[in-house]
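note to self — DONT lose this again. spent like an hour looking for the file last time. sequence + predicted structure for the chain T wanted, 193 res
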Amino acid sequence: MKSQPDHITALDLPIPERDQLPEGFQKYFDVCDEKLGMVPNVLQAYSHNDKQLDVFSRIYNELMFGESGLSVLEKEMIAVAVSSSNACYYCQVAHGAAVREYSGEPKLGELMVMNYRVAELSDRHRSMLDFAVKLTETPHNILEADRQQLRDVGFSDSDIWDIANITGFYNMTNRVASAVDMQPNPEYHQQSR
């Protein structure tokens, strides 16, 4: 059986050693090690450019952990559904692990990666994911009826804004990860099983 490649990306980026990073990023990576048991490869890849790492990590943390009417699990579910739609290996593995962790249901993480439509989901979650996937696959077909469907299951207009921003963010990161053959950290495969 062929194992996963051991590279971070297929590009020869000048990824610095941790002690070569600015102090703030060293501390950020220490927090990643403490909470996740690793520094995600996406952060290591972005570390070759301090300004991009700063912007990426700030927008990621604000979207995923900032104040919102969406739970962290719901945000991770969006990340997985979008990543599955885009067949982004890195994000399916990384965010599938997060869904397993936040839900406490390993099976849900797997179903989200494979096909969220077969999972037993609330009307709220199904509508949210249907919207995110439609926005991913055919954004020009989003209509007021799609936004109203979200309102009908309890999402506010601010929540819809967050769903759209999270969907857009993961469409961007999926494309970058796929373009550079970014590989997920092997640790993700064992998490929360």
